[in-house]
Design goal:
The chain has seven helices and no strands. The chain starts with a helix and ends with a helix. Helices cover 75% and strands 0% of the residues. The longest helix has 23 residues. The protein has 147 residues and is mainly alpha-helical. The chain is globular.
Length: 147
């Protein structure tokens, strides 16, 4: 059994490396397919990392898989954040803002605050956007106290 999990871990590393390489070679659709196949086989955070760099013709397919993963493996901040970033790429501001809020509910993250603020700007909610930027800045300052 131990051998099997090592093999799976190795396989995920290979899938991620292949996806990264395909993105660099501008073959985003194949990269997306590798990531989707990998996620369907077994959830692994590492498979989410290349997703924000994907420029795919079919983001809906990927978003559907991410939502399915949220149902299967539960509320993971990285899943919600990745979904939000994907939704922002094609202007789904409302859905993206909900995804970032779901991520932030579980753990504060300066990037998610910034993306949420951008989505809120697009939704013409400047006051709320400013509040999110302030929260993100406060978080950054807390995590990096002056020397």
């Amino acid at each position: 059994m131990e051998n099997q999990s090592r093999k799976t871990r190795h396989q995920v590393a290979l899938q991620v490396a292949m996806a990264e390489h395909l993105i660099e070679c501008d073959d985003h659709d194949t990269a997306q397919q590798i990531i989707i196949d990998g996620l369907k086989r077994q959830y692994d955070d590492r498979l989410l990392l290349p997703i924000p760099r994907l420029k795919t013709n079919n983001p809906e397919q990927l978003e559907k898989v991410l939502r399915q993963q949220i149902k299967n493996v539960g509320d993971r901040p990285l899943l919600w954040s990745t979904l939000g970033q994907s939704l922002m790429k094609h202007g789904e501001w409302q859905e993206a803002s909900l995804a970032f809020r779901a991520a932030l509910k579980q753990r504060p993250d300066a990037y998610d605050y910034a993306w949420l603020a951008d989505a809120l700007d697009r939704l013409h909610k400047p006051e709320e956007a400013a509040a999110m930027r302030r929260d993100g800045l406060m978080l950054t300052l807390q995590n990096n106290p002056p020397q």
